[in-house]
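Table S2 (continued). Query chain:
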Amino acid sequence: MASFILGHNLGVLFLLFVVAFVCLDAKTDKTQDYMSFQYHKGALLTGDVSINLIWYGKFKPSQRAIVTDFVTSLSSSSRRSATAQNPSVATWWKTVEKYYHKTTTRGHLALSLGEQILDESYSMGKSLTERNIKALAAKGRQSYAVNVVLTAADVMVQGFCMNRCGSHGSGSGKKISKFAYISVENSETQCPGQCAWPFHAPVYGPQSPPLVAPNNDVGLDGMVINLASLLAGTATNPFGDGFYQGPKTAPLEAGSACSGVYGKGSYPGYAGELLVDAMSRGSYNAKGANGRKYLLPALFDLETSACSTLL
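Corresponding output:
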């Protein structure tokens, strides 16, 4: 993120203007690449891939069910039966599938819910580093899998709330060269205005009343939003050389390129036009397995070069 400093001296302002003009006039091809979504010739996730969930800390069974039902909604069997209940999680994922049509390999990706590992004893403490997250992720099966580490509300994770609401990356496995993993944290008590918006008032910017979480859990519904965005990024850019916009060190991916957009007409402080459940008053834009309703982020559509929403 760039920082801009405004000086009080008119000469300094003029100098800044001249420098900016020269920089704009001297755009290189690489700069142009930063401004558009590019495929960098690397691998995408392909094949029959299991989503393994590593629960770190204490989660209620009802909380775990919110996430497992979301992952189940992405499976092939659920997606075939979901066409009659649009807008659905399955329809949302179709935007990710378009990325596979833009590569020469034309591989396919089929997701399913894999194993679940519970670590309720906080085996690595309640303050985790990047190294700890990677070690936890390595506990899951690594071949044809994405290992998702979900941390409880009382666990601090390095970098969380400061510059991110979750992350994805890759680790080195024992039997395979690399495996993909995702880290998602529960922000309910740490930074809900940053990582669970629009279910909590934002930390800054336009203030509007928070929406009711569709599963009545601000922390877990916020985790689903971030997990959804990170899954899209992991599928299309698992090892840092797939689809993204901007520099490799700080890429905008399929999900993160559309942060804060959930429905038609969205703008800062307003999530967009959404559906509202008549009984719970929860706001949502997608239906999932077992009667679940979710709020899912917009995804960058390669065909339209714009953020695509379900509504």
